């Protein structure tokens, strides 16, 4: 795994899929509850705000071009504090991977296989995930280049097929409740769409072909994913209205149910397919980052040996950590923002600040040492 390389185009497609991720189906509802009809504005604000974090993650890779995030943490914070912070990041990645598994399992058992135990669905998900992790980063990310085009086609069809159902008065008046609800909504979107992308620092720059061009690839992927999410938010409000969007747990799924052209109906399975694709790649990034972090932390030569044991633990905890969709919604609303903020903003910002403080102290200490030797 450590010698694998991906192209910048593959980094672009992976970033686009990870940016969409779970947001494709579930974020529109809580954001509309926070912002009302201005949820689409919150999506724009969050997209612009997120560029700062993409630049931060890129700068982190440029400062340490031959290290992954765990190695960077150990270099900057030392052995003991670095170990504590590394353990936190490992927990964040594996725990977030459990969250992705719970999303899929609970959706499938709620909407389709109602009588099936959630563990059976989670087992199938994790078998596929284990195969992807064992095949490695390079092989799995290649598939994202193809599957991203499928996602784009499905989402374009969803938007075009719902044009006749648009009701413009659903987004009027604009800024009815001021900017504060928009700020809260953009913060929620940022916690889902942007801060989790810190896991890319386990891939970039050590697994990219040309790290100097990686910024362009990451920004292109990020903007594509953000555009898709903006259109999802806008179309949900324009077609369903704020009340329906905020009440339904999966408003995008319900949006697809509105498509009906005579013989062409019941196409909501398409949006589920797009959601599963993007969610798979986001889950893959979480697990890959977590397993690579454990491997680096424990100095393992081959991290493939711990893939199955870790995913077995994930299977056990997938319905214990998130026992119901109601608890998952509670976690997302009250815990996830601060949890994601710590890993996606505080951690990289703290690393950069401490790094430059250490550099400044080294520069001031060198003249003193030169004077003493003279």
Indicate the topology:
Elements lengths: L7 H13 L2 H4 L1 H8 L3 H25 L5 H9 L1 H33 L6 H18 L1 H25 L18 H14 L20 H34 L3 H7 L10 H31 L8 H11 L7 H10 L1 H38 L1
Question: What does it look like?
Answer:
The protein is built from 15 helices and no strands. The chain is globular. The longest helix has 38 residues, at 336-373. 75% of the residues lie in helices and 0% in strands. The chain is an all-alpha fold and 374 residues long. The protein has a single domain, classed as Amino acid/polyamine transporter I. α3 (28-35) packs across α10 (214-247) and α9 (180-193) packs across α15 (336-373). The model has no long low-confidence stretch (mean pLDDT 85).
CATH fourth-tier homologous superfamily? Amino acid/polyamine transporter I
How many individual β-strands? 0
Give average pLDDT, whole number. Answer: 85
Helix proportion range: over 70%
* Residue fraction in strands: under 5%
Reading the helices and strands in chain order gives HHHHHHHHHHHHHHH
N-C termini distance: 50 Å
- Low-confidence segments, given as residue ranges, are none
Which geometry do the CA atoms define?
globular
The number of distinct helices, counting runs of at least 4 residues, comes to 15
What structural category arises from helix and sheet content? mainly alpha
Largest sheet: none
CATH architecture: Up-down Bundle
Named CATH topology? Amino acid/polyamine transporter I
Number of domains: 1
CATH class: Mainly Alpha
What radius of gyration results from the CA coordinates? 22 Å
